[in-house]
Amino acid sequence: MKTAVFSARRYDKTMLARANARAEAGHELRFLEDRLTATSAPLAAGCEAVCVFVNDTVDAQVLAILARQGTRLVATRSTGYNQIDAAAAARHGIEVVRVTDYSPHSVAEFAVGLLLAVNRKIARASVRTREGNFDLDGLMGFDLHGKTVGVIGTGKIGTIFARIMAGFGCTVVGFDRYPSAQFEALGGRYVPVDELMAISDVVSLHCPLTDETHHIVNADSLARAKRGSVLVNTSRGGLVDTHAASEALKTGQLGGLAIDVYEQEANLFFQDLSSTIICDDIIQRLVSFPNVIVTGHQAFFTEEAIGQIMQTTIASISAFERGEELVNRIPAV
Questions:
Q1: SS3 236
Q2: Is 236 tagged catalytic?
C-alpha cells in the first residue's frame, strides 16, 4: 500500500524499511523529511496511508486535504496522539492507529538518567573536565535515598519509573485517575495532585496530554510545590507551563528542571539548528540555567523501542490493507 512517511529521519527510513521487508509486507513507502502540515499535505497525494510522528499537524484542515487526496489511514509512530483530531478523522472516513505498546523501559530509564544528571550536575561536570577544570564547587547534589518521589501518571512507564525509584530507597507517591495495582504493590501510595506537589522532592510526569492534563504543572501548582524540588518531564511538553517553570527556577521555588519534551518543540526538535539563530526566548532562557537539562525528545530512542514501533506500524498498515480488525485503532471520541 502506498504510504507517505512524514518527519522521516535517517533512522526512520532504515528501521521502517527493515520492518517492511521482514514482514514481507510490500508497502510502497514514500519517505518525506517534511513535517505534515496543510502546506506539505499535498505531498501525500495518491497515498492511501500516511505515517506521522509527534510534531506533525493532523488537524481538521490537514485531514480534509488528505481525504480529498484519497488517504484512508493515518498511522502515528507514537503512543500519544494529541496531535491528531480523531473526531475530524472519523468525519472524513479516515482510520487512525497508534503504537499502543513499545519498550516502556526506554522512557522510564531515561527519566531516571535525566534526574541523576540534573541533580548531580553531571553535564556541567563533564564540560568542566573537558576544559581541565576539576573543581567541585557548584556541583553538589542530594541523595535520592530517603526522598519522596511523586509520579504523575502511573501507567506502564510511570510504574517502571516508580519501581526504579523505590530501588533507590525513595518513598513513592502517585496521582492517576486510574489507580494501578502494580504501582501500589511496589509500595506506591496515591494522593491528590496538590498533596503530591507539596510533599515530593522530585516530581516526574508520565501521563498523556489531554485537555485535563494540559499545564497540570502551572504557576499555582509550582507555588504549592515543595521548595527546591526537581521536575522531570519525558511525556509531553504541554503538561508544563514552561513560562511558569522558568519563573519558579528564577526564584528558587523549583530547584531543578529536566525535560525531554517542550510545549513549543515542533519547530525545534528533530533537526540541527546549531548554525541558526533560535528565536524561542523561553527555550533560550531555560538552557541558560545551570540547574536545567533539556534534551530533544529522545527518551524513546533505543534500538528495542524503535524496532517495536516500526513493526507495530507496519502491522497496522498491513491489517488495514487486508480489511482486518485494527487492534491499535484510536477511537473517534
A1: coil
A2: yes
